[in-house]
Amino acid sequence: MFFSKKKKAAEIDLLHLPKHIGVIMDGNGRWAKKRGLPRSAGHSAGAESLKKIVTEANNLGVKYITVYAFSTENWKRPKEEVDFLMNLLLDYLRNAEKTLSGENVVIRAIGSRKELSKEIQEQIVKTEEFTKNNTGIVMNIALNYGGREEITNAARELSKKAVSGEIKPDDINDEMLSEYLYTKNQPDIDLLIRTSGEQRLSNFMLWQVSYAEMWFTDKLWPDFKPADLHKAIADFQNRGRRFGGI
Ligand code: IPE
Ligand code: IPE
Ligand code: MG
């Protein structure tokens, strides 16, 4: 569903869009429970929501979107739910080749891959390869992603370089550390959206959200519509961002 530029022009200034939107897609389980459905039905509905939101963000002209699909902590869920989510993600990556890349989306998976099934790992490589020359929005799918794991990794890699003498410990600065994050060469998140009424980060993009504007809604992720994305962006555009200045 695409809102015509005419309709949204009043609300959104298309020249001052957030460069990078982060989305914590939460509330699938509660959405299903409210309807007397299994949690898996909520996850399926959530995947549909994701397609619409990425398409809309791309149509608006947003350059980067990072969506939290599975955290390093989500393995704690019952095996049945984890398996369902993994299959859904596999499906999403497979179909994304056909559907989302048709929308010119560059798809990347961020997070630790080694714990994922071989099938998913291979599909990620295929999907990334298939979409890498697209020119539209870059979508990072955070899959087995944890902000602490990401920063710890970067510290480990920098330590190796310091020990081998390639760099001096005193030369390490935040730009250098950023080079070892999954979001290397991408702008920081400037708008962070979380659905379902929870107001926490849950280990999402700890480094990249340092100056993000946070936007929360009680809507559950499967109910989140392109109009809600417009609202979040319009609110973002009305915030006074000072970055520590005056
Ligand atoms: C978000 O919805 C999706 C994932 C974490 C994979 P939840 O599954 O967390 O839904 P709630 O929070 O239990 O309602
Ligand atoms: C965060 O949601 C992870 C994703 C949206 C993938 P959770 O539902 O796992 O977070 P908590 O447990 O409520 O903090
Ligand atoms: Mg949740």
Structural commentary:
It is a single chain. The chain is an alpha/beta fold. Helices cover 42% and strands 14% of the residues. It has a six-stranded parallel beta sheet with strand order 3-4-2-1-5-6, with helices on both faces. The longest helix has 22 residues, at 39-60. Residues 6-10 have low confidence and may be disordered. One 3-methylbut-3-enyl trihydrogen diphosphate (IPE) is lined by residues 25-30, 70, 74, 85, 196. Residues 25-30, 70, 74, 85, 196 line the site of one 3-methylbut-3-enyl trihydrogen diphosphate.
Name some characteristics of this structure:
binds 3-methylbut-3-enyl trihydrogen diphosphate, 8 helices, binds magnesium ion, alpha/beta, 6-stranded parallel β-sheet, 246 residues
> Which runs of at least 5 residues are low in confidence (pLDDT < 50)?
6-10
Q: What is the number of strand segments?
A: 6
Largest sheet entry: 6 strands, parallel
Order of strands, main sheet, comes to 3-4-2-1-5-6
What separation lies between the terminal Cα atoms? 40 Å
Number of helices: 8
The percent range for strand residues is: 5-15%
Question: How confident overall, as mean pLDDT?
Answer: 94
Principal-axis shape: globular
Rg, rounded, reads: 18 Å
Structural class: alpha/beta
Order of helices and strands: HEHHEHEHEHHEEH
Topology summary:
Blueprint lengths: L4 H5 L10 E5 L3 H7 L4 H22 L3 E8 L7 H20 L7 E5 L7 H14 L6 E8 L1 H18 L9 H5 L12 E4 L18 E4 L9 H12 L9
Parallel strand pairs: 1-2, 1-5, 2-4, 3-4, 5-6
Helix pairs in contact: 2-3, 3-4, 4-5
The structure holds 3-methylbut-3-enyl trihydrogen diphosphate (2 copies) and magnesium ion.
